[in-house]
Amino acid sequence: TRLVVILTTSLVSYKKTSGGGGLTATGSASCDFESDLIVWRGSFSAYGVTTSDAYAVIKNDSEVVRQYLLENGVSEEELVFSSVDISQRYRTEYDENGNYIRDYPDGYDLYQSLTVTSTDIDKVEQISRDITQLIESGVQFVSNSPEYYCTTLDEVKLDLIQKATENAKQRIDIMAAGTGCQPGKLLSASLGVFQITAKNSGSGEYTYDGAFDTSSREKTAILKNALTFDPLQRKSGFFQHTAGCEVSGKRLRADADKLVASERLFTHFLYSPGHDSFSPEGLAEPVAQLCTS
């Protein structure tokens, strides 16, 4: 009776503490790729005492910019001009002592921007770096840094998901082999965020919700995911003989996680008066007799 109490207690105790954590591994995959689309933005402005004066100036500047871009290989389909924004300029008047008197209208500022979208990255890069001709023609032009995108990014992401999942499963298999068990059913799978950074920029560019770099032509994409499997441990020794018998109306189940924990507890408690020592294998026969009695 004493032996049966130790056995059932150890199984229940291990069931409470082992939980359902399972075998969890994080897989990762990364790849380098080159952008195949460039977006370049620029803007220019004009001033006039009246709105009509200012509009005449910016209309002329817009045509100068258009001709410059077309002459350098940009097509009409790749070029988009925004609508014109207008704001009134004010001048502040002060007295001879520096005290504020009033603000009064002092002409109008007009702004217009353009966007060039192209798959000819080299061409647009060259244009964005050299706007000297526009400035020399009197256009107040401001060039922004190009932005780089990949039109096949969805394919890149799907490939990373597959490779990261395979990597996680390989790690699960290695962990299982090293701990004497085998993966059971999949308990959970979680997909991390995509980190798309400039090539060779390192993890310092990663963000919590995923980085998305547009400043670099050469990029690196990385993805991590996690898999959790139910561990099915192998039966061994004494439990191969006793698994399945009933004690006090309860069946000793052959679930490996319970059995291994019980085996450890038996090793600690297996001493009783009248016996010099006990081993898990040596207990198979007496427990089997109790089960059938």
Could you characterize what this model shows?
- There is one protein chain.
- The chain is an alpha+beta fold and 293 residues long.
- 36% of the residues lie in helices and 33% in strands.
- The protein has helices at residues 2-18, 51-71, 121-129, 132-136, 153-178, 238-242, 256-269, 284-292, and strands spanning 23-34, 37-48, 79-81, 85-94, 100-118, 140-143, 147-149, 181-191, 195-198, 218-233, 246-247, 250-251.
- α1 (2-18) packs across α7 (256-269).
- The chain starts with a helix and ends with a helix.
Proportion of β residues?
Answer: 25-35%
Which structural category fits the helices and strands?
alpha+beta
Number of DSSP strands?
12
> How many distinct helices?
8
* Gap between N and C termini: 11 Å
Query: Could you state the oligomeric state of the chains shown?
Result: single chain
Helix and strand run? HEEHEEEHHEEHEEEHEEHH
Describe the global form. Answer: elongated
Rg over CA atoms = 37 Å
The amount of helix comes to 25-40%
Instruction: Summarize the biggest pleated sheet.
Output: 6 strands, antiparallel
Low-confidence stretches: 1-19, 235-284
Report the average pLDDT across residues.
79
